[in-house]
């Protein structure tokens, strides 16, 4: 099975996947290097994930996309004051461009993951594990105890299962906070290919 993992980060969603051929796309070369260290058999491409999806979506059996979330986040909006430090920004509509591209043209299974937004979502998602998921399959409900957003690096490392102490040149807390919980990634991947699943 050929899998495309977009905005791959250090690979939280991918950590527990087995028996798959993964192409991971991450635009930060330092973070891409960490991903490659954890998943040496994956093909890691340093590139713009949004552009890569448009050019290559037909080549894969399953696509996972986790576009940047700050402009959609409730927490970020709470701390947006319209000044130079915390400017008002347009919500990044690449999120919805990807959802519509996959809904309209992609023949495989897909999952687009993002935060619960400060606005009513423009396309209805499934809301699970404190996040939004847009898919073409049903995800059996599940819960997670915590995402650890207010935890320190040591607790986040234990929660996500990644020790990145030896790396430099990155904001470790942000990298770990952005990391999808591995059990969440596994649950969704398994749900995509359960035989009884029907397309939404």
Can you tell me about this structure?
It is globular and about 50 Å long. The model has no long low-confidence stretch (mean pLDDT 92). It has helices at residues 29-38, 49-56, 74-78, 94-105, 153-160, 172-177, 182-192, and strands at 2-6, 21-25, 43-45, 62-65, 109-114, 126-128, 131-135. The protein has a seven-stranded mixed beta sheet, with helices on both faces. It has one domain: Vaccinia Virus protein VP39 (Rossmann fold). By secondary structure, the protein is of the alpha/beta class.
Domain module tally: 1
Taking strands numbered 1, 2, ... along the chain, how are they ordered across the largest sheet?
A: 3-2-1-4-5-7-6
SSE class: alpha/beta
What summary fits the major beta sheet? Answer: 7 strands, mixed
CATH class call: Alpha Beta
Oligomer: single chain
The rough form would be described as: globular
Strand content: 15-25%
* Named CATH topology: Rossmann fold
Name the helicity range.
25-40%
Q: For the terminal residues, how far apart are their CA atoms?
A: 22 Å
Spell out the CATH superfamily: Vaccinia Virus protein VP39
What string, H for helix and E for strand, traces the elements in order? EEHEHEHHEEEHHH
CATH architecture: 3-Layer(aba) Sandwich
């Amino acid at each position: 099975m050929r899998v495309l993992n977009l905005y791959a980060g250090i690979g939280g969603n991918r950590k527990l996947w087995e028996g798959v051929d993964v192409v991971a796309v991450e635009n930060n070369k330092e973070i891409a290097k960490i991903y490659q260290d954890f998943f040496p058999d994956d093909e890691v491409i340093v590139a713009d994930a949004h552009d890569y999806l448009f050019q290559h979506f037909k080549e894969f059996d399953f696509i996972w996309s986790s576009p940047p979330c700050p402009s959609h986040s409730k927490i970020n909006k709470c701390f947006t004051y319209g000044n130079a430090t915390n400017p008002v920004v347009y919500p990044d509509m690449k999120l919805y461009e990807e959802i519509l591209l996959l809904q309209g043209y992609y023949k495989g299974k897909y999952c687009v993951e993002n935060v619960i937004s400060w606005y009513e979502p423009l396309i209805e998602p499934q809301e699970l594990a404190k996040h939004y998921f847009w898919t073409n399959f049903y995800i059996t409900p599940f819960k997670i105890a915590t995402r650890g957003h207010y935890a320190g690096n040591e607790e986040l490392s234990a929660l996500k299962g990644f020790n990145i102490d030896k790396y430099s040149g990155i904001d470790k807390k942000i990298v770990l906070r952005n990391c999808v919980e591995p059990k969440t990634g596994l649950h969704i991947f398994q749900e995509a290919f359960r035989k009884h699943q029907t397309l939404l």
